[in-house]
Amino acid sequence: MQAFRILQNVREDTLMSAEALLENLLDACRRLQAGGLLAASDGNLSVRLPDGRIAITPSGVPKAKLVLSDLAYLDLDGTLLSGHPSSERAMHLAVYRAAPEAKAIVHAHPPTAIAWSLARPELEELPSEGLPEVILAAGRIPIVPMAIPGTEAMGGHLLPYLPAHRLMILARHGGLCWGEHMNEAAGGMERLEQVASILLKAEMLGGAKPLSKSELAELRALRAKLGPRII
User: What is the pTM assigned to this prediction?
Assistant: First the structure.
């Protein structure tokens, strides 16, 4: 528990320059692709810059090969300022509008997390009530109903989950994590796939068993004290 308290007290530099924020975005692209959470030109990442502009990854470019000049820029109202932004920009803008604390967004395609939504379409959240670390680090991980990728509906389907949830599975599509800095958003996506993989292994061994109601209540009370950040 001490480790969680220490992590909760860590704060990213809120005065980070636009250039540093953009470099962090490119670093996260490479990190997620190397980790198998993005393939080819899949997924999209964005950051909110100090001047209010949204920098977002472009369509059709593999994330591992991105350079600064590839990035596109939007206003919060969706006005295109430059570049060729991801077709899923409406989803990013919906998060930024609904969650003023959001400074970075990662949408990736974690394979095991997606598989849960394919095989168990009745689930409304990832069944992680047996994993104390997940409850403390992320809270509940809801599964957002499917919408056709690249449509305005993607953003609309997210709204009931915002700003309460920062880490979500997008049914049959991928995962989404937003945070107050890119490390939080990218780390949340890595955590999502790890949790989904652990739960898959538990299913193969006979099924994950939840914690007791009293244990869950204690863990959720601790999570509430830690705050909403993905750790």
Answer: 0.90
